[in-house]
Each structure stands twice: as structure tokens, then as C-alpha cells.
Protein 1
Amino acid sequence: MEEYVPPTDHLSDRDFRRLGELIQNYCGIRMPPVKKTMVEGRLRRRVRALDLASLDDYCRRLFDGGELGSEMVELIDAVTTNKTEFFREIEHFRFLTAKALPHLQSQPHRPGRDRPLKIWSAACSIGAEPYTLAMVLGEHARTMRDFRFDIYATDICTDVLQKAKLGIFPEDMAREVPNDLAKRYLRRSRDRARPTVRLIPDLRQRVHFGHLNLMDPEYPMDTDMDVIFCRNALIYFDKATQNTVLSKLCRHLRPGGFLMVGHSESVLGSSLPLTHVTSAVFMRS
Ligand SMILES: C[S@@+](CC[C@H](N)C(=O)[O-])C[C@H]1O[C@@H](n2cnc3c(N)ncnc32)[C@H](O)[C@@H]1O
């Protein structure tokens, strides 16, 4: 077995602090000292891709060489955590079909019938979350004639958005998709050496992807969303940033609409116009 040789190239404390401030100001993600090893590992890949000598060299170009603007997208792509799964935190999807949809459709303007139901996945990563929504709503449409829906899916990270738009996933990732849904909505690749699945075009067309930084002062999104999923992104922000983001999201949710956050995230204790409905589910009051 080959001996493990630990990397010798490290970020100075000053550079890590400067990078941390830059990243937190730009995308809200906190960079406490425990993340230093992770950031170093990811940025070493950038150092290699740019053919630079060291992390020190990388930081010099970033902070002193005026290359911050052009490198920002790559830097954010390198430091964001994009872990996601189909049917992640499945209770939300159960709640959506069992409670949220019947409730929304009992409202006078009947979203889904009189106009398309609008759902926003506000930190969508490579698309497993919005495509899960597409399958769940596709199933709902089978039980209700004329049911229409649109899913908006945004993220700050450009490389995940490119993957999301393609809608092609390693077959392993589709393990959590129930068999009947997989049969109806996923198509397997012919290449059995690299097995992948792809969502059927009819569902892909219902998901509209776009770039959006939750730190931006305004979101260029409709203000009458019926449901917003903002899951497993807030956890990387500090409390004040979480509150600011949540209050902006509330402006895009119509009264009576639902907000889903990750099960390890909290909205409680804030003065937002939200009523707690059940675990990690809130209603716009
Ligand atoms: C761990 S993934 C969660 C994906 C999905 N919501 C889920 O729960 O499976 C977090 C996502 O948040 C995105 N993100 C982080 N900061 C963001 C910001 N300021 N604006 C928009 N998206 C952000 C990341 O790029 C990443 O794709």
C-alpha cells in the first residue's frame, strides 16, 4: 500500500480569514476555523487547474492581482456544499400531497386549476429536489385532470445548475425514487458501463432553472409562490443572515402558502410572518 503523504501546501491564517470574509459577505456561508482543511482541499484543486504553484500564489492573485472578479464564480463553486438526494427528507413530499395541495386547492383562486401551481426550490443544487417535486406533482396531475404546475429552481453555484439543467444522474442516485415513479418518469441510459438516468422531457420542461444568490437584496422571482422549499442552505449562514433571507423569501410566498426548511434548520423565535405547521413546515400568515 502506498504511504499517505499529507499535503504541505496550506493557507496562512491571514489568507483564510480574508477568504472567509469574502465568502461570507458574498454568499452568506460561514467559514469558521474548522472549515480550513476542507477549503484548502477544494482550493488545491483550483491551484492545480490554474497551474499555479501554491495556495499562497492563488491568494496573491485573488487579493493583490485583481483577479477576484473573474475567479469569484469558481471560488463559490469550490466552497459550496451541494449534497442532495431524490426524496430527501421525504416527510416534506408526503406533507405536500396529503395536506398542502388539498389546502391550497380549497382556496378561492385554486392554484393548479385556475392558474398553474408555483413552487420554488430556492437552493436546488444539481436538481434532485426540484425533480422530486416534478415527479410528485406529476403523480398529483394523474389524479386530477387539468392540474398544472411550474417549478422554479435556483442556486448560487453555476456548475450545479449546469448539471441540473441536463437532468442526468448516476443511476445510484435514483435508488430513493419509488419503483412506479422511476418507471414512469426516469429513462435509463443505454451505456451500461456508466449507468445513468434522465428525467423524461415532459417533466424537465416544468422545471425552470436560474442563478440566484440568496444574499442579493432583491430576488427576481414572482411574489405569489404557493410553496417554497429552502432546505439545507440556511444552516451554513449565521442567525442574522438566516433571518434576512427568510424575510425576503416570505415576500415571495403568498398568504396561505407553505415554506419548507431543512429538518435541522430553525425558523422559530423569529418575528417573521410565518406560522409553524409541523416539523420544518411553515405557513405564510
Ligand atoms: C446542501 S445543498 C441543498 C440542496 C437541496 N436543497 C437539498 O436539501 O437537498 C445547499 C445548496 O445551497 C446553495 N447555496 C449556498 N449558498 C447560497 C446562496 N447564498 N444563494 C443560493 N444558493 C446557495 C449551494 O450552492 C448548494 O447547492
Protein 2
Amino acid sequence: MKLSTIFVQALLVPLALAAAAPKLEKKVSYDGYKVFRISTHHDGAIIKEKLAPFAAVPFNLNTEEHLDVAIPPQDLAAFKALNLETEVLHENLGADIAEEGKFAAYDGPSAQAVPSLNWFNSYHSYADHVTFFSDLQGAFPQNSELITAGTSVQGRSIFGIHLWGSGGKGSKPAVYFHGTVHAREWITAKVVEYIAYNLLVQYSTNATVKTILDKYDFYILPFVNPDGFVYTQTNDRLWRKNRQTRSGSSCVGTDINRNWPYKWELTNGASTNPCAETYKGVAAGDTPENKGLVAFTKSLAAGKGIKLYIDWHSFGQYILLPYGYDCSARAANHARQTTLASGVASRIAQSYGTRFTYGPSCSTLYATTGSSVDYLTDVSKAELAWTIELRPTGSSSSGFILPAAQILPSAIEQWEGMTYLLTTM
Ligand SMILES: [Zn+2]
């Protein structure tokens, strides 16, 4: 924490929070909730109708093939009586959250002032993530600096790390990563941290890594929704949106990945209901997070340009190409993007056999409006702009609650996929 103590302090004291008296909210308990994947046979509406009487918590947005849903203990008997075709994703969601919440203490940098790989054996608090980045940057001051891309609703910095190679700071096209836009997708920060870690730690010893970092400037933002992430650790593990309140509604939160000012006005790819998980906001780009991210993205596009953008999400194991807003629209270089995505999927599978499906976002998964990938493609002119949905698929148990033992394998297989992409694109 040596060099950047002031930076860390600034991140840890959200100004808006410090000013307002904190409202005491009870932490949501999922003890005894059982999570099911229900086959919908292309008729999700009928299943949803049957679930209407229950206090069920939906996990997925695309219900074409299946509906993933957490059923509270008091409804389990009635749910079972419905005799639906199901598999179990979590036997006891609360128990799995408790297991995942056993954070290892961050052991700080080693004698060489580089944080240890133990970091990837457990999930961590937001404060520890901030310290990890400060320590990592502090160990490689010649090739990195800490950056910010604006401020969240509650006053947290949307911090990140900028990495560069022999050409010097800001001399090469940008590779640009966003993690944790959806608060509950904890694995995403770990994966981008592992990529940043390897690029710095292996730069002087690995010829491939040196080639990559000498060719591109990396801008890695691990938490574009910091308030939401903190909220998943203090109040509700399944929180998705930011923590913005809106006049006229008691519901909190806007989906940052439905608020980008491009194709925001279209219907069917987001919700206008402030209580919905995909609430798009009142106007295009009207969240504090999107304002900061748009300005930062514009600065990259106006600089050396954006070669590659990836918005990291979980879960489902997908590599999603443009576009979200229209299922028949294709990027001008769609064929090339598809070839590259196919190569990345093959390389990912080499480590542990993990299968990733790839294709255009809308036709492969579901329609999205105001998404980052569409904005980066058409407004920022990024050559490649993808969403990657990390482990698991959901069919082999678990969902957003990915066991800590899978952090490192998830990171390793993505590092392999990125190594392929960054040397091929
Ligand atoms: Zn997501």
C-alpha cells in the first residue's frame, strides 16, 4: 500500500455515504432457498404463471430454454407438487453463500513487493481489492498507473489500472476491460485481476507477454459498479444494479448495462420499470457511473483508438459479439470477429475442457438496449467489442455463487483465451 495510501483512503471513504446517516437495512438471508433450473420447453410464460404465488427469486433473464429460480423454504413443498422438469443448481443457496463468504485474509505483497497468487484462492472485500491494485501497481511503477473513470452514485471512485510496455504510457491502441457491472457477478473482478497480474508479473520473463504489452495499452476497470458490489457483501448477495434512487419510486437501482447512450430508446431490450432488474433509467446515460464511463471511453477512442473491449459478466459461458439491440444486425467485421471468437473458445477449452458458446449477443442470448458493447462498437469504433459470460453454465450446479475453488481455473482458462486473442487479432 506504500505509494498510494492517499489514493486508497480516497476510495474507501465514499463521500455521499459519509454525509448521509446510513439507513439500517437487514441483510437478506437465502438460508434454505433451493435453486432450480426448470425446463420451459419454449413456454416460459406458463411456468412463470405457476410460480406467481411463490416468493421466488429469478436468476436468469432469457427463459426460452429454462428458468433458473430460487425457491424459499416455505414454498418448497408446493413447488415440488407442481412436478416440473427440474435440476438443482443450489441445494441450499444460503449455505453456498456462507461458504463463498469465507474470505481469506489478504496477505499483502511478498518480499519482492508483488502480491501472491493466494489472492486467487478466495473472494475478497472491496477494501481488499482496492489494496490489491494499489500493491500490484506499486510493484510495477514503470509499466502501470492507477486510473479512475468517474464516480459512483455513492461517491466511490470507478478505479482501474493502466498498463503499458516499451513504447511508453498511452502510445498504443487500447485493450479495455470492464468488470462487475452487475454487482453479483463476483468472478469477473477476479478474472480481470488475474489478467492484469500476469501481464505485469510475466512482462520481463515471458516473450509472448512482452509482445502483447509492447503492442497495446491496457485499461482495466475491475468494478464499474462499486456500490452494487459493496451492497452484495453488506446486504444482498444477489443484487445486480447500481444503488441509485429515483423520484417517484421506492425501488433502487438502474442497470448500468442498459443505460449507455446508444440505442437506449429502443424497446424490448430493457425495462422502464424502476423495480425491474434491467431498469434502463429515465434518460440515456443518466447514471453517474455511465457518465464517468462514457467520458473515459471517449478519451480512449479519441486517443490511440480501441482495439478490443470486453465487458466481463457471469454466468452462462458465452462469448457474445455485437449486437444486442437487433437480432439481425451484424458488425461490419462480423466474419473476422466470429473467427476470432471461435479461436478463443477453442483455446479456453484446452485448459479444463470448459465449453464457451459464441455468437451475436441478441440472437445467441437475448436482446439488450443501451448496452456497452453496442456503444463501443458503433460510437467508439472499437475493432472488437465483446461480452464474455464466465462460468458456470448453470447446468452443472451453481450460478452467480461460483465456488472459490473455481476462481483460479476460471482465470487460467480466460488468460489462455486472451493470450490467443491478443496475439492473433
Ligand atoms: Zn451481467
